[in-house]
Design brief:
Belongs to the aldo/keto reductase family. It holds the Pfam family Aldo_ket_red. This is NADP-dependent oxidoreductase domain-containing protein. This protein is 34% helix and 15% strand. It is an alpha/beta fold. It has one domain: TIM Barrel (Alpha-Beta Barrel), CATH 3.20.20.100. It has an eight-stranded parallel sheet with strand order 3-4-5-6-9-10-11-12. It has a two-stranded antiparallel ribbon with strand order 1-2. It has a two-stranded antiparallel sheet with strand order 7-8. Helix 5 links the parallel strand 9 and strand 10. Helix 1 packs across helix 2, helix 3 packs across helix 4 and helix 7 packs across helix 8. The mean pLDDT is 96. The structure holds NADPH dihydro-nicotinamide-adenine-dinucleotide phosphate and 1,5-anhydro-D-fructose. NADPH dihydro-nicotinamide-adenine-dinucleotide phosphate (NDP) binds next to helix 9.
Amino acid sequence: MSPVHTLVLNNGKKIPIVGLGTWNSPPGVVAQAVKDAIDAGYRHIDCAHCYQNEHEVGEGINAKIAEGVIKREDIFVTSKLWNTHHEPMDVKPALQHTLKQLNLSYVDLYLIHWPFAYQKSDEIFPRDSNGKILHSRVDFVDTYRAMEYLVDDGLAKSIGVSNFNIQQLEYILKNARIQPVTNQIECHPYLLNKKLSEYCKSKNILITAYSPLGSPARPWVKSDDRVLLQEPKLLEIAKKHKKTPAQILIRFQMQLGNIVIPKSVTKERIISNFDVFDFTLNESDMNDLQNFGYVERICPMFEDTKHPDYPFNDEA
Ligand SMILES: NC(=O)C1=CN([C@@H]2O[C@H](COP(=O)(O)OP(=O)(O)OC[C@H]3O[C@@H](n4cnc5c(N)ncnc54)[C@H](OP(=O)(O)O)[C@@H]3O)[C@@H](O)[C@H]2O)C=CC1
Ligand SMILES: O=C1CO[C@H](CO)[C@@H](O)[C@@H]1O
């Protein structure tokens, strides 16, 4: 097995650069995907309560621990606090529920999934009788303080945030006792998030890039007929390096200095998406990949735009 390629978080802990995404990975399929990923060399799995498959993800991880392929400490497991559990008193029970689902005693990283809160509910998207999402106001610094206690308790080795904008990060940093180690955000050539990335870099907060392949399973948000994985310039770069377009997009994130979490439940893709350590994109490739122009946000959470903590009102 080749060495695990890692970056160092601002608390000195290591995080494997390439992780397996699990959103939209169906129960009945995802446990095998996790096992295939671990066999292929992945040592980082990105999960979330709202993906509703943590039980099966845990099955995959624990099967590989039981087989002796990995030990618990060899694998980096991330989960995320969902919007319905932002009240400080709900934070620890939410992680305890996730740990029970995963059948693990700690996560390596726990993130606030979004800065905005929904009303407490067992539903992922609680709605009123008109179908409108039931928002609530919880100061996310209060939520974050409850996250800090999870580190004290040893239930989460590191904590961080996801989908936070610069102002929201500044507010966290002003009040944090434990620095967030990462901001997990959408990042790919159609949405580079340059200002936010530069800000995070200046604060020693790593970017974890989600939807790095342009999330092709979300055609419903596309108002344009451009498909990232089929961009002519990307195909040209892939041909030149004898790599797949997906491998180029993953390598692109790595060379930006980001953690990257491509999702797949297809064994061949899981394997090939990890085969990204034996080539380098040159400066001109990197520039070309940063010149596609903004197309659109793949994960805009349109139903939440009126929430005062919605993060994307003044950034592209
Ligand atoms: N914090 C947040 O708010 C968010 C976090 N995330 C995280 O990031 C992960 C990745 O983002 P996601 O939105 O899933 O999108 P990705 O950009 O990772 O794309 C995943 C899709 O691409 C397909 N695919 C995978 N590999 C290849 C390949 N080599 N060639 C062609 N198609 C491929 C997959 O299909 P198949 O599985 O059928 O192979 C799947 O449909 C998520 O799974 C989740 O863990 C995502 C969105 C928001
Ligand atoms: O992580 C995520 C995956 O996609 C979901 C649906 O768009 C989002 O709600 C969530 O943030």
